């Protein structure tokens, strides 16, 4: 990112030639902003302040150039005028600034309706300590500027890309339930106060927007008892709106937005219950019930029933439910996790046969159903937490399958550690468990050393 900025300054100083300097435009700044926004080695506060600094400089240069263009009277726009992509890059950069522990403020009510978007003078002058709030403020400011222009200045007209950047910023803000409520509030503002009232046709929430809100609730579900339930409520609202409007039409008869839930939507809700299962074991059962709904709906659609688009569960969906059982620590968690793993493996094998291939011919199988190393590590984690007598033996058996069967993903360190945990748990009352743990550790070291020599 620093190198990208240094190159921009070299261009501006004419070090690369006057022709290069004269070609600098808003895209040049946008690329530097994105370099900062996507840099993994810089802190969030540095990134947020830097993209804001670049935006202010760009806007000032554009203002000066606009005056020159206006005086010239040729009707051309400034090449430096920020556009929708520039503002989206700034919002992405703002999103890197996370909330501090206990940070984040609820700017919206329970259903997310904004109380006073503009705020009081003191509020407007306060520099937000959460990047998502800066991103939201910028989005609202752009909408105000767009309306002030008589809705003709497309350079400041907010769009769905910017909306999604703000929603993702809140979802990943580490602001907990307040972040989720704020994300929901922004979505409702865009949908109910802006788009539905004809104030901006480009600010129409799509499935990506709704999924960002679902993700926001999922991320705080472990420590907020109502988060998973709220995520499912939003999902059911999406289903109801789609079902009530001409069999999953794109828009309702009354002009309301209809957004069809997709597999990401369902996976986000399942993930919310998976996280909640650490505190409430019944959440794991609810996660599996939603998975079963998807399976039944998918099979029903292809057996000639229903008009709704079939939503096929994928490996992430199954892995999240296995995670839920592992997190629940219920007496049947290990059995449930292994059962789901076997079910997924069976579905994958059947997909291979239906396509005329075998499980070894991955190109002829359904890649969306192929179990991953995360699927296996989640199953092994469930076994490692189990009090069942044969849990360690079952974990070892699955690990050996992974080591010997080239069709399966190769075990990673989490898989080995889970089996070691299972063996350690049985060491005091199962003869040979401690020895097998030592042998497994030696095997891990041997395999790691062999890979290091390749």
UniProtKB/TrEMBL annotation:
<keyword id="KW-0677">Repeat</keyword>
<feature type="region of interest" description="Disordered">
    <location>
        <begin position="99"/>
        <end position="132"/>
    </location>
</feature>
<feature type="compositionally biased region" description="Basic residues">
    <location>
        <begin position="99"/>
        <end position="111"/>
    </location>
</feature>
<dbReference type="InterPro" id="IPR051222">
    <property type="entry name" value="PPR/CCM1_RNA-binding"/>
</dbReference>
<protein>
    <submittedName>
        <fullName>Uncharacterized protein</fullName>
    </submittedName>
</protein>
<feature type="compositionally biased region" description="Basic and acidic residues">
    <location>
        <begin position="123"/>
        <end position="132"/>
    </location>
</feature>
<dbReference type="InterPro" id="IPR011990">
    <property type="entry name" value="TPR-like_helical_dom_sf"/>
</dbReference>
């Amino acid at each position: 990112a620093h190198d990208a900025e240094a190159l921009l300054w070299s261009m501006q100083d004419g070090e690369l030639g006057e022709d290069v300097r004269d070609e600098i435009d808003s895209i040049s700044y946008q690329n530097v902003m994105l370099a900062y926004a996507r840099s993994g080695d810089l802190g969030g506060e540095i990134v947020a302040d830097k993209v804001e600094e670049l935006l202010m400089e760009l806007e000032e240069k554009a203002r000066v150039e606009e005056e020159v263009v206006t005086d010239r009277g040729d009707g051309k726009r400034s090449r430096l005028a920020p556009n929708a992509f520039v503002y989206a890059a700034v919002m992405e950069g703002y999103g890197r600034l996370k909330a501090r522990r206990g940070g984040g403020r609820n700017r919206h009510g329970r259903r997310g309706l904004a109380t006073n978007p503009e705020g009081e003078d003191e509020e407007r002058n306060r520099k937000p300590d959460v990047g998502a709030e800066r991103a939201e403020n910028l989005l609202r400011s752009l909408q105000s500027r767009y309306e002030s222009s008589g809705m003709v200045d497309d350079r400041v007209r907010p769009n769905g890309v910017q909306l999604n950047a703000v929603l993702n910023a809140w979802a990943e803000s580490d602001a907990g339930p307040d972040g989720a409520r704020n994300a929901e509030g922004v979505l409702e503002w865009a949908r109910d106060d802006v788009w539905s009232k004809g104030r901006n046709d480009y600010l129409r929430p799509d499935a990506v927007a709704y999924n960002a809100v679902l993700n926001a609730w999922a991320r705080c579900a472990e420590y907020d008892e109502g988060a998973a339930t709220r995520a499912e409520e939003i999902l059911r609202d999406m289903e109801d709106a789609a079902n009530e409007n001409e069999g999953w039409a794109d828009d309702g008869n009354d002009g309301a937005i209809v957004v069809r839930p997709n597999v990401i939507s369902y996976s986000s809700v399942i993930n919310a219950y998976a996280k909640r299962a650490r505190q409430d074991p019944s959440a794991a059962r609810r996660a599996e019930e939603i998975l079963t709904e998807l399976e039944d709906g998918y099979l029903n659609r292809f057996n000639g029933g229903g008009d709704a688009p079939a939503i096929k569960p994928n490996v992430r969906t199954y892995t999240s439910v296995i995670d839920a059982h592992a997190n629940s620590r219920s007496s049947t968690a290990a059995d449930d996790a292994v059962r789901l793993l076997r079910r997924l493996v069976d579905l994958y094998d059947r997909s291979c046969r239906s396509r005329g291939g075998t499980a070894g011919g991955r190109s002829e199988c359904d890649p969306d159903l192929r179990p991953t190393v995360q699927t296996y590590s989640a199953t092994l984690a469930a076994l490692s937490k189990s009090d069942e007598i044969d849990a360690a033996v079952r974990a070892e058996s699955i690990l050996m399958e992974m080591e010997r069967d080239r069709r399966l993903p190769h075990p990673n360190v989490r898989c080995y550690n889970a089996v070691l945990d299972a063996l350690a748990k049985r060491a005091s009352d199962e003869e040979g468990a401690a020895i097998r743990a030592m042998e497994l550790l030696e095997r891990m070291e041997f395999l790691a050393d062999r890979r290091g020599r390749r």
